[in-house]
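Could you help me review a protein record that somebody else here produced? This is what I was given.
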Amino acid sequence: MRRTRNAKIVATLGPASSTPELIERLFLAGVDVFRLNFSHGSADEHRARAQAIRAVEAAHGRPIAILADLQGPKLRVGTFADGAVQLAAGQPFRLQLAEAAGDAHAVTLPHPEIFAALQPGAELLLDDGKLRLVVERCDGASADTRVAVGGRLSDHKGVNVPGVALPISALTDKDRHDLATALELGADWIALSFVQRPEDVHELRALLGARAGIVTKLEKPAAVQRLEEVIDASDAVMVARGDLGVEMPAEQVPPLQKRIVRACRRRGRPVIVATQMLESMIASPVPTRAEASDVATAVYDGADAVMLSAESAAGRYPLEAVQIMNRIVGQVEADPLYRQFLDTSHSPNVPGETDIADAVCCAMRRAVALLQARAIVCFTHSGHTSLRAARERPEAPILSLTPLRPTARRLALAWGVHSLHVEEVASVEQIVALAAALARREAFAQPGDTYVAIAGMPFGKSGTTNLLRVGVA
């Protein structure tokens, strides 16, 4: 089941894609990571999907990653006496802690942390940014606002407070319960929503330990303001463009996406570009040309993965969406300009800021280019070696070998990495023999082809990448 592309595909499972048969077809069509969205569905539904994923993995002998996406805090207005109101630009409107049926003059906002952070002049966005309010006066229990952009407002619509860091944890009680469920069903990655600061990631890390990797969702401007720190605290990053586009002007999102992808590549953190990539395929069997270009742009930038959300979870054409995304990625990577873009956007190692593993992987990249090696074979326990190799965006595919099944699954997210679960190795001789045999078996190389192997000695100790070996399959 070798993929012939480098960028990975993440697909969200939901009502439209939950049968074992369809999950297998999605995998065969190109899905590398399945996302379970804990904003929707019951624990039993997620458990059944996870079991189906593991059955597909066992049947095809290829590690598959499960990404459990926590909901995070959801800030919403209360209810209205008549279910909805129409707000006009220029009219006053009050938000208040006090519980009461809303009308055209006021509505309950049951979130004291918002009132604690508001200042006159602050903006509030309602219903995914469709309505905009400007605060004129506020205290700890209410805020008098003026409607800047009006429209229809109905029960329980979401509230965003751009430019304000709210005194609220990224983990709710529901998230903690869902986290326990996700770990029980064997999730490899946990996606953290509503991240505002690196401390939010540290809070999850304290609960999670090493049981799964953390994907930090960048959807709040406050997190972007501390981008480098947030990336350093994370194991991987998701560019959640839908929420970013609510809290900042839409024209700022494309350059920010490129900035985030570049920062993640420089640090060797896998980065997923997500939200509305093939949005029209929720109802259409084909995407728009603009959507195809959007996916292609992320691939040209060197993103590790592109993601389908509602397209595969609730759309009418989940399988077609995966197939088309797979074809777009393949077409981009076959373009000679793709390698040029990767090379020109490569972040070189900085003398004085690198370690032995950086030097080995840098040498690996040069050796592959000079020798036109057909494959790179990495031996890893923690996944560190393979991620370092992927950071270099080498010209040959990366065959990652590990005796730890959780590591093999987690690496399914990383660019260019074909992950395999193997027995432990104890010597360089075993590495050479196994690398040659598996490179041939997995169709990475033919007899006589050159490959480059990297590993760490002593074997079995994480973070010791220090060996480079050139061999012939």
User: Anything to note?
Assistant: The mean pLDDT is 94.
